[in-house]
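Changelog note: in this version the structure field was regenerated for every chain. One regenerated record is shown below for reference.
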Amino acid sequence: MTSLPDSSQGADRRTLIHIQARSERFLQEIVDAHVHLSERRDDALIRFARTNGLRYSLDELLRTMRRHKITRGLLLSPPLQGGAALPNEEIIKLCERSRGMLAPVITVEPTAREVKAAIRLAEENRRLVKAFKIRLGYVKASAESPVFDRVYDYAESEKLPVLFHTGDTASSNGDLVRSHPLTLDGLANKRQELTMILCHFGNPWFMDVAELIYKHPNVYTDISGLTTPSAYAEKYAGWLARKISEAVYYAGGAEKVLFGTDYPVTKHSETLALVRRLEIDERDKEKILSRNSKRVFRL
């Protein structure tokens, strides 16, 4: 009896090619949800740039993004020496010079005047602005301070996420009580329509963040700024990969995790290497690198 050709092999091969093509397409559309930049000499992140051997310029940033197939980046104000944040107007101008590769995130400081100015700037640049940022641990206010109510109201109405610094601070005088991720549980309970992004995975409180992204439909996190040079950099990178992977297991998936570098604090290559080290499904890595941010920031 003559056997018929096994058409299932051809079908399987076509399916594999389709999956590979889809994966490659998303890897060519990576979104960096956490980038810093300024052209100021009093930028407090210059020391990180020097440690990492970076020029810390717009040209270098865009060139590096292209090299790593990062098509979009969200630009946040870096801290200046003395503690203030770079004025949001300068972030807008840098984004306008990026030819669409960078989108601004408006930093909100805890005064009625600064909140009003932040909302006004977001309103004037509705087509550009993608989110707000609150620097917990660096400012003398908590996430539930009434001063932020107006920006939360506006963010909910415009469906703009709010990023919160969580975890370790870049300065030794940061307030870890206010930057602990569990301080955001109450706000997430009260503001269920507010999309909240906990920056830096709450490092070192990874499992606390895992609980928050599991518990709250409106809470997300990013993996930015986790690696810096040290004598134990390789072992630390392995520890980070295990912690993030375990958090993904606990949360039941990677739908709430966003890719971010925190440039110039961490190099793009190092954060991409961290994603490669994660012991999770390749499709979950796609979500982290691209899909999740596109959905959350409506890119």
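Spot check on this record: Residues 1-8, 15-20 have pLDDT under 50 and may be disordered. Residues 7-27 form the longest helix (21 residues).
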